[in-house]
């Protein structure tokens, strides 16, 4: 039994979230779709799914795996499996549930931004213990435009951009990047200097802010990861299937 992790880029792994899940006893079946790994045809033996981030547009169906992943996410939700989408995964999850996404008219959102928990977010089990207003990391040029039917916004900014949402009790999506580290952010900056310039910031500015925000961000996201490990993907509630996965990366 394992959590299926769908990754889309060598530079956008699940990082610290994956480490936290393993520390709590979870086995991860990591499929690196950009490297040609396949998406399982069925979800026998899968405890839940994480859809990670990536640099591609969430409506670029030229990627052979994209429609297959959306179908997989939809199937998981129908089976009542816990599902978590991060950044690109948040947008693909919205598509899987009938929502819509669009490119940000103001360009790529890079660096650190305050997110505010909504009344629903303040009562949500995964955000319990987090401040109502806190600063987290972003790197996205697309975002959810229209939420799926019956979805609830858990966090947003003052402009109304959706930062986190929930559908039912087992489907969660984060537009921000709780899994990053300073090294990962620096890697993204070095990989896309033109995007940084278009966003009107510099490497020195982003990394300086990262140094200031990191101690609090690390502490709060570790709390969030623990909630994911114990409440969203609880080991004691494994109930779907007994099959074995194709390959497990440790």
Brief rundown of the structure:
This protein is an alpha/beta fold.
CATH class: Alpha Beta
Rounded Rg: 17 Å
Enumerate how many helices there are, as a single number: 7
Instruction: Give, in order, the helices and strands.
Output: EHEEHEHEEHEEEEEHHH
Strand content: 15-25%
Biggest sheet, in brief?
A: 9 strands, mixed
**In total, how many domains does the architecture comprise?**
1
Please list the strands of the largest sheet in the order they lie side by side: 2-1-3-4-11-10-9-6-7
**Percent in helix:** 25-40%
Q: Just name the CATH architecture.
A: 3-Layer(aba) Sandwich
How would you state the average pLDDT, rounded? 92
Give the helix/strand layout.
Layout: E1 2-7, H1 15-23, E2 28-32, E3 46-51, H2 66-78, E4 83-86, H3 88-96, E5 100-103, E6 109-117, H4 119-123, E7 133-140, E8 142-146, E9 152-156, E10 162-167, E11 171-174, H5 182-191, H6 193-198, H7 203-232
Helix pairs in contact: 1-7, 2-3, 5-7
Question: Overview of this structure, please?
Answer:
The model is unreliable at 239-250 (pLDDT under 50). Helix 1 (15-23) packs parallel to helix 7 (203-232) and helix 2 (66-78) crosses helix 3. The chain is of the alpha/beta class and 250 residues long. It has helices at residues 15-23, 66-78, 88-96, 119-123, 182-191, 193-198, 203-232; strands spanning 2-7, 28-32, 46-51, 83-86, 100-103, 109-117, 133-140, 142-146, 152-156, 162-167, 171-174. A hairpin with a 5-residue loop joins strand 9 and strand 10. The protein is globular. A nine-stranded mixed sheet has the order 2-1-3-4-11-10-9-6-7, with helices on both faces. It is built from seven helices and eleven strands. The chain has one domain (2-237): Rossmann fold (3-Layer(aba) Sandwich), CATH 3.40.50.
């Amino acid at each position: 039994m394992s959590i299926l992790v769908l990754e889309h880029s060598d530079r956008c792994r699940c990082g610290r979230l994956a480490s936290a899940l393993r520390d709590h006893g979870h086995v991860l079946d990591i499929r690196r779709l950009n490297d040609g790994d396949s998406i399982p045809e069925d979800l026998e033996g899968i405890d839940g799914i994480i859809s990670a981030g990536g640099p591609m547009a969430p409506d670029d169906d030229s990627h052979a795996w994209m429609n297959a992943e959306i179908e997989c996410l939809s199937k998981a939700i129908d089976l009542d499996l816990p599902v978590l989408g991060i950044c690109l995964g948040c947008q693909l999850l919205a598509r899987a549930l009938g929502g819509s996404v669009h490119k940000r008219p103001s360009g790529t959102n890079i660096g650190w931004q305050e997110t505010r928990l909504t009344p629903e977010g303040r009562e949500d089990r995964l955000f319990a213990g987090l401040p109502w207003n806190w600063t987290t990391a972003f790197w996205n040029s697309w975002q959810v435009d229209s939420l799926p039917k019956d979805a609830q916004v858990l966090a947003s900014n003052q402009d109304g951009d959706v930062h986190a949402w929930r559908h039912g009790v087992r489907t969660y999506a984060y537009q921000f990047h709780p899994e990053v580290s300073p090294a990962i952010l620096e890697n993204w900056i070095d990989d896309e200097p033109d995007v940084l310039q278009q966003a009107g910031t510099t490497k020195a500015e982003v990394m300086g802010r990262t140094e200031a925000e990191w101690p609090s961000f690390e502490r709060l996201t570790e709390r969030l990861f623990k909630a994911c490990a114990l409440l969203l993907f609880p080991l004691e509630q494994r109930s779907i299937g007994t099959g074995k996965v194709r390959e497990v990366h440790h």
